[in-house]
Amino acid sequence: MCQSQGCQLDEVRFYTGVPGRDDDPFWHHFWTNKLARLGRRGGTVYSRSLEYRMKIASAVPVSPVTQNRKGINYTDWIRIDRATYDACLDPRDYWPKTRSTTGGVP
């Protein structure tokens, strides 16, 4: 590729994450061997353990009359149409029922 562009390759650097042995033995073995081979052939190899993090997203209803165009801060915002959003809502009321001593609404 370099020769076709009239360039000279001076260095190869390879960056990747490697699954832990307990997380995925097959890919751990594959990448460990692949990186060792690249290193023996003169490549500069950088690797780190893969980190699996929980991702939090908020569903944001979008319609022509929706005012809010944003979800919860520091989450990914998944925009869905209002009908789909409404169909996902649990219609049950989970608020505790309390007795009012005055006979009014709590």
Task: Give structural notes.
With 106 residues, the protein is α/β, with parallel strands linked by helices. Among the domains are: 10-49, no CATH class; 57-88, no CATH class. Helix content is 22%, strand content 23%. The chain contains two helices and four strands; from the N terminus they run E-H-E-E-E-H. It has a two-stranded parallel ribbon with strand order 1-2. Strands 3-4 form a two-stranded parallel ribbon. Helix 1 links the parallel strand 1 (13-18) and strand 2 (44-49). The longest helix is centred in the first third of the chain and has 16 residues, at 25-40. The radius of gyration is 27 Å and the shape is elongated. The N and C termini lie far apart (75 Å). 0% of the residues are buried. The model has no long low-confidence stretch (mean pLDDT 82).
Question: Which strand-content bin applies to the residues?
Answer: 15-25%
Structural class designation: alpha/beta
Whole-angstrom Rg: 27 Å
How many β-strands, per DSSP? 4
Q: How would you state the average pLDDT, rounded?
A: 82
N-C termini distance = 75 Å
Q: Helix and strand string, N-terminal first?
A: EHEEEH
- Count of separate DSSP helical elements: 2
Question: What is the general shape?
Answer: elongated
Uncertain parts: none
In terms of quaternary structure, the protein is single chain
Strand order of the largest sheet: 1-2
Helical amount among residues, as a percent range? 10-25%
Biggest β-sheet, characterized?
Answer: 2 strands, parallel
